[in-house]
Predict the structure.
Amino acid sequence: MKMVEGGVCAAKGFQAAGAEAGVKYKDRKDMALVYSEVPCVCAGTFTTNVVKAAPVLWDRELVENAPFVQAIVVNSGIANACTGKEGLDCCKAEAKEAADRLQIPENSVLLGSTGVIGMQMPVDRLKTGIAELAGKKERSVKAADDAARAIMTTDTVDKQIAVSFEVGGKTVTMGGMCKGSGMIHPNMCTMLSFVTCDAAISKELLTKAVKESVADTFNMISVDGDTSTNDTFLFLANGMAGNPEIAEEGEAYETFKEALLFLNTTLAKKLVGDGEGATALVEVQVVGAESKEAAKQLAKSVICSSLTKAAIFGHDANWGRILCALGYSGAAFDPEKVELFFQSKSGRIQIYKNGSAADYSEEEATKILSDEEVTILADMHMGDATATAWGCDLSYEYVKINADYRS
Amino acid sequence: MKMVEGGVCAAKGFQAAGAEAGVKYKDRKDMALVYSEVPCVCAGTFTTNVVKAAPVLWDRELVENAPFVQAIVVNSGIANACTGKEGLDCCKAEAKEAADRLQIPENSVLLGSTGVIGMQMPVDRLKTGIAELAGKKERSVKAADDAARAIMTTDTVDKQIAVSFEVGGKTVTMGGMCKGSGMIHPNMCTMLSFVTCDAAISKELLTKAVKESVADTFNMISVDGDTSTNDTFLFLANGMAGNPEIAEEGEAYETFKEALLFLNTTLAKKLVGDGEGATALVEVQVVGAESKEAAKQLAKSVICSSLTKAAIFGHDANWGRILCALGYSGAAFDPEKVELFFQSKSGRIQIYKNGSAADYSEEEATKILSDEEVTILADMHMGDATATAWGCDLSYEYVKINADYRS
């Protein structure tokens, strides 16, 4: 497997574009198109929030029932959530406009929206944007960059990755982009994440691979504990790599899954590393847990603890908060057996063992906690299960961004 | 029922004191004593965190098995949590010192600690503090004030309340104090809360009343979603009011429960109103829910949403975040049926109905959200169940306090 350029345009036959539609933001790109020259097999996962945005309802229907898909139209600025019938009508209008412009069926157009909840969408501006996107689309690094930037809200950087690998003697390429910075506590999915791939793969196996991979990546991150109404992960595979179709489990499927896990892990970490106001990417590794479920509960409890996050922002080795968060996770363990470590590129120290503080240097701990990527390692000594979760610290800036997000 | 002065000293036969022991803080009172002239019946609830502080383990044993209790010794500064055997030995030393000084049995001395997790306790300073407390204890408003201030950590004000009411022709008085400002997300209990009462009541009924009341008050508040290792609620009843013992359910028990509910609600609201960095007390009222459990889930989900809390700090009527938090609560409902209102002393407005925004004035909404007490009312239209939860907004100050709490 090797890294390649081009994000969602890296895989054969995929084009992209970004446009300034003025949905809500001014003077920046706020609409993106991802388009495949040929029909695609598709898999997706969506928010578990009871309140689902209109484009989530639209996409879920297509992912389940459409014979194929060929395009994704995304806007930032307004989420098209809590918009009632008007919101669903807007989805129809967008899909119709895209279908006309791209000469593809309406039910092959997937949609995504991110931004303020509750505001109605400016349908005319969206249509004008779609016309522009259809005219500009191309397969280039610049087009992928434009699309990745257009879907940003409070994100400070665009988030892309692409890799290539061999399947049955053919080079397969897989590339993705995602956005998300606040309201990040995905459950079945992240905010918005789109992956394109030129592999030939059956819908059944693609769906299986996507579900498993999302559970260990996007569902293991948290910025603020708020599960969005718009979480969407979509994977489009168009078969243009020419590989023998991956239609059963085996070596080719494992290779595909490994690439997908790497890609999703990378995107998920980019996402929380750019969490609203974040100054550090925090990784929580739980080992020695009683079961996989317990390991996940423990890792997520620490990554979601506001007090732990604030301590890391302050570079303060306040490990009691970590033990406290493990304690209220719902997983059983013996506090006397747990061992805790801090780790970064600056080193690794043990901070807790045998029921109380280990003998460590506060200075060394502060040095480790001042790095941009910090790992908290918890060995529960209860079994063999492991899990990793990712998040970020909690800073003044998070509050500032969210105290007045709408203006 | 009427309000009276004197906090934990309001009920007959209860004395208190505060002392400067220098446990961790300098130049302020950091130890408190609550003492009854006669033996008390006791009930308590404690943290559900797997990691329990040493004084929690100590108290739980006494509440279950001791024939009676007569004193509570509390310190702030260090939590005596994650301190292993040394922490438990410290509890024994404290109880022994208090027993000697107060001439009561060791197993009638309850303990409470709050502050930094993981640091060992300075046993000698605690003993000196206990000697001072025993010498100073008295039944006065000043003594209750001293005790209430001594247990504060990041609290900005002390939190006390007392009421009196009639039982069987006798005046019964009930008074309490509590502390807590961060790491507040009680589960079975709040940080530290101590209530004294001169009623005669059986242990069985007292335990029942305490459990039910805590479930609807302290367990319905959240400052930051972190359930502490030290949460403790203790209720001491010494019978000195001379009322016929409340030994079965009936009018006297109902009167007692009503007073307890009022007292616990008041203390719980004081607690979150003084949440770390809080500028507003937020109340979430859920009505029309399918079940009591669903109502509680919905109310707690909104009160815990970082994004909702940050929006209230910014006086921003970003109601989409409220609907989003209802949506990920785990309770089922129809987003089209929900109605949302904002309410404060400045007025009341409907902000959401029929699946999208109601026609309200942003100016009026901002005015309501600028008040010090703000109510979010959600009518789910699913049934008859109701629940109320309390919390506070999320400010820069919260992050500041917690980024460097230990220094």
User: Anything to note?
Assistant: The longest helix of chain B spans residues 251-273.
